[in-house]
Amino acid sequence: MGNVDDDGATFQQSYVKCSNGTVKTSTPISNGHIPNQHLSKSWRDVQQPQQQKEPQDDHEEELQQLLLNKQLKFSAPAYTEIRTRSGGLNFKGVSESSYHPAKQAEANGYVSQTGSSCDKFKPSRADGVLSAEQEHYQKTSFEDVPLYTACLTYLGFYLLMILGYINQLLFVPKVATEKGREGYVALYDAFESFYSRYVYRRVRDCWNRPICSVPGDELVLKDRVTDDYGWSFRFTGTETRCLNLGSYNYLGFAAATGPCADDSENRARQKGLAYCSPRSELGNTQLHIDLERLTARYCGVEDAIVFGMGFATNALNLPSLLGPDCLVVSDEKNHASIILGLRLSGATTRVFKHNSMRDLERVLRNGICYGNPKKGGKPWDKIMILVEGIFSMEGSIVRLPEIIALKKKYKAYLYLDEAHSIGSMGPTGRGVVEYFGADPKDVDILMGTFTKSFGSAGGYIAGSKKLIDFLRTNSHAHCYAGSISPPIVQQIYTSMSIIMGEDNTDTGRQKVQQLARNTRYFRRRLAQMGVITYGHEDSPVVPMLVYLFSKIGAVIRTLTTRHIAVVGAGFPATPIMEGRIRFCLSAAHTKEQLDYALDVIDDVSENLGLKYSRKPRDPHPIEY
Amino acid sequence: MMGIQLFNELGSIFRNTPTYALVLETLLLITVIALLLHKRGGRGLSKEQQESLIEQYEPEPLVADTDPDHPLLRTRLVESRVGKRIVVNGHNCLNLGSHNYLGLLEDDEILEEACKCLRKYGVGSCGPRGFYGTMDVHLELEDRLAKFMGLEEAIVYSYGFSTVASAIPAYAKRGDIIFVDEAVNFAIQKGLDASRSTIVFFKHNDVQDLERSLQQQEKRDQQNPKKAQKTRRFLVVEGIYMNTGKLCPLPELVELRKKYKLRLFLDETISFGTLGQTGRGITEHFNVNRDEIDLISASMEGSMATIGGFCVGSHFIAEHQRLSGLGYIFSASLPPMLTQAAISALDRFEREPQIFSQLQERSRQVHTQFKLFTKLKLGGDELSPVKHLYLAEDRESFEVESKLLSQVSDKCIERGVAVVEAAYLRNREHKPIRPSLRIVVNRLLTDNDIRETFDIIEAVSIAEL
């Protein structure tokens, strides 16, 4: 159903393969308690569709029954107190039309993307309370942790630490000692190495899992076991096929067959695998130039420049744009590459609360009014607001219209990192700028990566010709780092043309819509289940809060035994209290796959007690 | 009951305290409160003042205007697959500009295997190493690299530039001291910036100068032994310097490392796969035990002719980057087909170790021949595949030299020899670097090629300079 990817084996096919003989389900690593009967039962559920002709209805009936039961349980609503993290906001200057989610586009197809939206967006102070902005609020959820869970989380964490310290006192394995450097100052900070050895090691098997297939809608895990409590792993030689909810394959362009792979292979045969030279010496080709032009057109701006690594795009270009006399106002949840870039630039960085426009305005005001304190209050050379389109750990979407209004009011510049949102947001996949119907020219610097939606590698910066010319002459990556490999460029070029519809098919649009649909469906079903998810309803990054450090491990391990691959994040990537599981949706997923995943997640969260939410739940079945 | 008791207690405390103490304490309390309130109130700018300041604020333009004639704006266009020959701006040239030392870029076997890998894994890896971006090819490459170098652990990065730039700040932090050769490449300089440590530069390849600054540091340590116990000391050098083409005096550096308890980081971007009988780099060339070096990093964009980079070292050291090498954790992993290309390149290294001596022979030949230019001066070591051609006589400024050299380069390309001026961001380098034509030796060059190249460059340089 609706699977537009050429390589995408449909749900039935793939899981039949798994159930016939190759059921290597129980990975020995898991120590989460999995009721075995449950496992086999759910397998029967999965296999049902391919045995019967009309399994869909059965399934839905079952679901409704389930929901009815749930509703009964919740006849006395438990939603007496629901708080959102940041308070309400009365920002004036955003018109209703600037908040338009992707749903309209499904009805009337191609939405004009540039230019015309300019007149729609006029900051007018006359507006009263803004319903559109509140709509954004409603769709964005940051439910607070229940007090009881918060206490448990801290307790659990400190317990882990204490056990770790005891462990460290008693058993220090050989790997943790350095050879041949006696009398040297210790290389690592004591806490850092303690944490990675005695706390993180307990769940080490949940990360860096090797796979041996395309990271498409499904992936094949290489099974590994540990004989020494996580210090080292060995491969068992078996493989587990899993539904992939972990890769950033938003539009499903990660594929070993199909037009992208074909073009890339041809290009590699024609031009080789690398240039062994930076763009500035002997690494500049027509293909790079074409890609830059296409990217500029895609983003609706004058010019663009491309680089070989997304991380480096931030880290190596921010220093050319900013200097020590600049003020950067940066969202607290910004990605590490941005933080590194800021550190390298030497600019003064002030952080504002995640997505809080009021706090952003406060920081901007203070910045302008009090100037640079190191230079006795001299005004800043430049003030730059730095935000991401979709925040990768929070799943929230930037409040672009308000930020653009603020930026204009305070004459700041705006740097928008669309690493996750480019391709995955907006009716035609042009990112959050299109999603909000904003004018791309209002964003001074548009940055994005090719790793995610385009299924390739690298990054770009798009903007005015003046900006890009400056970068060509000042960017570290352009001058010193290797030029992008030809097959990698080709993959980006082909996938971008497909998204833009320049291959004369509507595959690209279908993919974008499929993703939007999957996202809505998946998020709503999760909310209905009663687990706490963060972020905006339209963001394909779905963090599900599990809070406790050990539950991250338990969920990942349990889901693996049920053939679902997900990603977990805990301290230090998130605050101690906010351990989470992150699902990344893809256009390659079919409804059946999502249903399977949701059923399993429901089951697992029931068993592990993840249904923390105190919000009212939608009693009706969610439509796809 | 309890309440009354407490009240009485408090009353007695008050009664027993002398009046002056009470007065003083009250004053103190008032000051504290006043200070607290004052802080919170800010530096009293009224709303109107703030508005007018905001009204008046005029920022500088986002970027400065760019000179339309800037050399970096008119880059050359490569129109062919890169190998020993290359088509630049429509001219079919002999390639002395791409860092394809061993000529593996035109190896069809490697290409074939990479394409096979593409058909198994797709192009991108769609995730960082931690989040399902680790494919078995990555593990195989790390395993093979570690074995090849005879060390415990290797870790693969997805971009050559980010390798050393991420490795250094993974270990060196604020308060540490890093001793660095002043000619290190730009990636290392960025790594140093990111570490926020104290940086001590020593003169290029000057061991005496390094020892002098180490002794100074020792004196400082004696004055403040407590701090010295917490200060980690690093020494960062390159095997062959990208910016000068010279080899580092590794044995002497290792001696100093032992004497002053430094941790030695070695960037082998050029020397890996070019020096030594079997291509294991400068350690093999000087016959230095690799355990003496704490961390070796290299880019795979040179002799291995693909994209990316790696670090090798003991398990204790290299493993640390898997949790703190920023470019490793936060970046998508290297596309599998390029990883496969690196594995295939290693296969070639092991199967045909003679390619290294062939390359070294070529480097020597080029060195002897290129020393003879009348208007240009050769820089770099005779064994190094990267050499620099400087103007024989100094001109008034680096800009003038740079302009002359790019004229020479353009004319050379027109006459069928691709040599390019080394590109630098002059205002961002730690120290201005003298402009040069960077010559890259390819293993596949023949005697005839070298002679012809020499004649062309000689003729062009005499005409232009």
TrEMBL record, chain A:
Gene3D superfamilies: Aspartate Aminotransferase, domain 1, Type I PLP-dependent aspartate aminotransferase-like (Major domain). Pfam families: Aminotran_1_2. Residues 241-601 form the Aminotransferase class I/classII large domain. Its cofactor is pyridoxal 5'-phosphate. Keywords: Acyltransferase, Membrane, Pyridoxal phosphate, Transferase, Transmembrane, Transmembrane helix. Residues 21-58 are annotated as: Disordered. PANTHER family: CLASS II AMINOTRANSFERASE/8-AMINO-7-OXONONANOATE SYNTHASE, LD36009P. This is serine C-palmitoyltransferase. It comes from Drosophila arizonae.
TrEMBL record, chain B:
One of its GO terms (biological process) is sphingosine biosynthetic process. InterPro entries: Aminotransferase_I/II_large, AON_synthase_class-II, PyrdxlP-dep_Trfase, PyrdxlP-dep_Trfase_major, PyrdxlP-dep_Trfase_small. The chain crosses the membrane at residues 20-37. Pathway: Sphingolipid metabolism; Lipid metabolism; sphingolipid metabolism. Gene3D superfamilies: Aspartate Aminotransferase, domain 1, Type I PLP-dependent aspartate aminotransferase-like (Major domain). GO terms for molecular function: pyridoxal phosphate binding; serine C-palmitoyltransferase activity. Its EC number is 2.3.1.50. It is an enzyme of class 2 (transferase). It comes from the Eukaryota. Keywords: Acyltransferase, Lipid metabolism, Membrane, Pyridoxal phosphate, Sphingolipid metabolism, Transferase, Transmembrane, Transmembrane helix. The keyword Zinc-finger does not apply. Residues 92-452 form the Aminotransferase class I/classII large domain. The keyword tRNA processing does not apply. Its cofactor is pyridoxal 5'-phosphate. One of its GO terms (cellular component) is endoplasmic reticulum. Pfam families: Aminotran_1_2. PANTHER family: CLASS II AMINOTRANSFERASE/8-AMINO-7-OXONONANOATE SYNTHASE (PTHR13693), SERINE PALMITOYLTRANSFERASE 1 (PTHR13693:SF2). Belongs to the class-II pyridoxal-phosphate-dependent aminotransferase family. This is Serine palmitoyltransferase 1. It comes from Drosophila mojavensis. The lineage of its organism: Eukaryota, Metazoa, Ecdysozoa, Arthropoda, Hexapoda.
